[in-house]
Amino acid sequence: MELRPILSAMRRNKVGAILIGVQMAITLAILCNALFIIEQRLALSHRPTGMDESNNFVVTNQWVGNPTDLKAKLQGDLAALRSLPGVIDATALNSYPLSNGGSTEGLLLTPDQKEPTALSALYEMDEHGLQAAGLTLVAGRNFTAEEVRDKFGYLDVTPPAAVIITRTLAEKLFPGRSALGQSVYFGGHTQPAAVVGIVERLQVPWTQAGGWGSQFNDNSTIEPMRYVSPYTHYLVRVQPGRIAAVMRAAEQALIALDRARVLEKTWTLTEARADAYQDDRGLAVILGVVCAALAAVTAFGIVGLTSYWVAQRRRQIGIRRALGATRPAIIRYFQTENLLIAAAGAALGIALTLLLNLWMVSAFEMPRLPPGYVLIGAIVVLLLGQLAVLWPALKAASVPPALATRAA
Amino acid sequence: MFTYYLTLALRSLRRNVVLTVLMIAAIGVGIGASMTTLTVFRAMAGDPIPRKSRQLFAVQIDNWGPKKGVVIGDEDNLQQQISYPDAVGLMTAHAARRQSAMYRTGFALTPANPDLRPFQVTARAAFADFFAMFEVPFRYGAAWSQADDTGHADVVVIGRELNDKVFGGANSVGRTLDLDGHGYRVVGVLDHWEPIPNFYDLNNNKYAGAEEVFIPFTRAIDQQLASWGNNNCGGDSLPAAGWDGRLHSECIWLQFWAELPGAAEADRYRTFLNNYAAEQRRLGRFQWPPHTRIRDVREWLVDQHAVTAEVRILVLVSFSFLLVCLLNAMGLMLAKIMGRAGDIGVRRALGASRRAIVAQCLTEAAMVGLAGGLLGLGLTVLGLLGLRALLSEDVNRLTHFSPSDVAIAVALSVAATTLAGLYPTWRATQVQPAWQLKAQ
Amino acid sequence: MLRMTHLSKAYRTEVVETYALRDFAIHVREGEFVAVTGPSGSGKTTFLSIAGLLEEFSGGEYQLDGVDVRGLNDNRRSRLRNEKIGFIFQAFNLIADLNVEDNIDVPLRYRGFDGAERRRRIRESLSRVGLSARGRHYPAELSGGQQQRVAIARALAGAPRLLLADEPTGNLDTQMARGVMDLLEELHRDGATIVMVTHDPELAVRAQREVHIVDGQVVDLAPPPRLVAGLAANP
Lengths: 408, 440, 235
Prior knowledge:
The complex is a heterotrimer of chains A (about 400), B (about 450) and C (about 240).
Chain A: H1 3-12, H2 14-45, E1 56-63, H3 70-83, E2 87-93, E3 103-108, E4 118-125, H4 129-133, E5 137-140, E6 149-151, E7 162-166, H5 167-173, E8 183-186, E9 193-199, E10 220-227, E11 231-238, H6 243-257, E12 261-268, H7 269-276, H8 278-312, H9 314-322, H10 327-364, H11 371-397
Parallel strand pairs in A: 4-10, 6-10, 7-9
Antiparallel strand pairs in A: 1-11, 1-12, 2-11, 3-4, 3-8, 5-9, 7-10, 8-9
Helix pairs in contact in A: 1-10, 2-8, 2-10, 2-11, 3-6, 8-11, 10-11
Chain B: H1 2-15, H2 17-45, E1 56-61, H3 84-93, E2 98-109, E3 119-126, H4 129-133, E4 138-141, H5 146-150, E5 155-158, H6 160-167, E6 176-179, E7 182-190, E8 213-216, H7 217-222, H8 242-247, E9 255-259, H9 263-282, E10 292-296, H10 297-303, H11 309-339, H12 341-349, H13 354-390, H14 393-396, H15 403-429
Chain C: E1 2-12, E2 17-28, E3 33-37, H1 44-51, E4 59-64, E5 67-68, H2 74-84, E6 85-88, H3 100-111, H4 115-128, H5 144-157, E7 162-166, H6 174-189, E8 193-197, H7 201-204, E9 209-214, E10 217-220, H8 226-233
Parallel strand pairs in C: 3-8, 3-9, 6-7, 7-8
Antiparallel strand pairs in C: 1-2, 1-4, 4-5, 9-10
């Protein structure tokens, strides 16, 4: 196929060609970046918590006022929950993964260190915690009942003597060596906390993309503490398949023990996950819809303009046909024309894509776009053009050669 | 003449239905997408208190010094909240026309009817000035007095929705509310008040609206009402255990707002703050030069990223999409107009001036824009319904479509499409009438 | 009515400048029927374009109905064209989307007549060309001769001072051509000033006077003697 006649025809329809090219460029830029965001957000929403999620539920309990016998009430609640049929174990805690509220501590290797070595979420649990959450202990041991002390709400800032940390945190604090038996310090305290166990994984409570916690998603520290507070979460783990029935029974049992409380929320970890990542999934769906609409608009724009060009050149095409051009040759003509425009558009589009990504990197702390995306995006846009041009090209190929003999 | 152009435009649009439908659809989809996100964006970026947003200032004081470990703060590490000692200091100084330290807390409310279970209510501890400062509307009663502040009175102001729920919407002023087992006398009931975003405390649930109960700050401290917001204990000194420990610590957990009408008052307050910080240094509490700031509501919202990254991404994407749709419509209009070059030439020969051709083409473009705008409106409503289904409850509050949005959508569509029609129109005016004599 | 003196028109391309008209002079009096003839490429069409204010000229002078049109802006030229000139094209140039009445309506709209006036003029001009029954038809539904009569009706509707016809029968068969020429002669008898460009000597003799253009210049302005009788017959 000779390019010269195509190029000279394009020069005559310069603006139309530029319009299509620019559309394809912007489409490419949006498509690449949007698909990248979609992929990221979906990946984000599938991050594991490290818990036995499908069998975990949480009851958030708020006492009326600040009862004096808080500790006894807490122990009564836990005993009742643990004795429910179908329950594997239960614990009280200050916060849980996917809840989007919790506390953070900067961990130090020496007490006089100025900058923390690692940030970590703090979870307070008793010796039932690992079992109740379904965490996998990969090294060391669980807390003993003797290690567990009471923690009176968020105002109680006494650090623990022992901690269990996640594997990611262990590697961050003690790279290349075993964290077991090592000491860590809480900011401002001189009393060391010994690492007695390491769990495979335990996500921080925060889930927002680029938000607090996103830089230390798997850095968690478990303190051997009974969370005695007017506002607590009970985490319950049940035998597979019994979660719905146990949840109902748990609420009834707690109300039966004491009515002067608010069960603010009772939900499964699966529900908490859906809630925590709702906006991420929503964003992914919206961007997906916008991408599809964008591709459709661009494609129909190409169909419209190319159809017009075909109509404009009917006579020329007839003459070409009369002079011996085959149908495939006519189709190829329009395909090549579109390919040239799309290639120019893609080149501009790649530049736009990278610019847009650079802006997002700086404005939203997003990662860099991998080059593969740009490449795939460019190919998609080229294919989109070819697909869109097919129908007008077929129409052009159906122009009869006899048209050349008739008047315009 | 305009009606003539209108009929011409209609006729032209009818002539090539496919092209017309493509144009209207492209513009409609573009407008729908951009209006959907713009609605949310406007709600997020909106000024929650337009009449006073330049007079209300968030107060920031550096009580940790240059080395502070983990801070969630500004670029220059100035903390977003203040400590209890500073709140007391600023309230005592009373240097602004109105001011209030405040924090978010909450209660378990026990209904008078013993058959009903206790339920949770959110609350805000604040000073009396809070209501006048933020122009909070009252349905019944009024704010508590400054005497109630100093007297640590057991009074509350409740929101309209809570009043509906507990008192069936009746005037409940003088009635008692059982909050965490303690009786508080209702002195005021708010009318519907939903500042979006919740500018005075952006730490949690920016779009969740105001709290349900308001209680004098002094009484909340007495009652040791826990903070339900962000607590940050950085700096060099650690808090002692317990409530008193927290009060005397350098932990930051309180918001502080001041009303300063006029630049002069604002400047005076800046000086006052620096003097205050210098005084704290003299007293040995701060070991660094004064570092303070006040930001008005608008500056504060920008600084605190009231508009989430998600929405900014969506606005960017949807407006790029609109641009593509307009380029698309522009190409199609160009094709349409150039396809009619012959007719335009005849009209020119019959005495149509360039101006007449411009009017004819732009009328047609504006009609496409109008049709696209109306389609876009429908799609916006669908889009907002979609957002409501897909996004969390907080964001749902931002998906209300107001009459002004209808006007914006149609105006945007007509203006953008007419703009896109400029180039094709210019091409139409370049059609030489003389061409009609030649090349038959 | 139409007077051109020392008129020239140059077409400039990137490389050369060619003159389509050079030191061109013509004078058409009110009520005249002039045929402009000449070989292909002689400048006939250029003359007509300039005469009809469709194109500007490079030098010289042109007075149309006493108005010096040199250097007028587009608005003034469009206005003059609309008021003073009626065009009859070889290819009729009816607007395919508009029916007969709406086609005739086009120049009247730009003239700014009110609805009643426009309707009256459409009715009159249609009856003038004998097509009163075809007002609602679309151009495609008419024969070539009928289409050209509609075009003439459109040219007449504004009561122009000057009718400019460009090979008005070029796209018609002999039968239809005769009908159109009869109509033009009739209009002339009723006092219209007509300038007709044609390459057909048969048609040219039906005019009062023939102007011959060769290479962009008028070569003979003398009226053919045999038409003197015709003039006498039509006082």
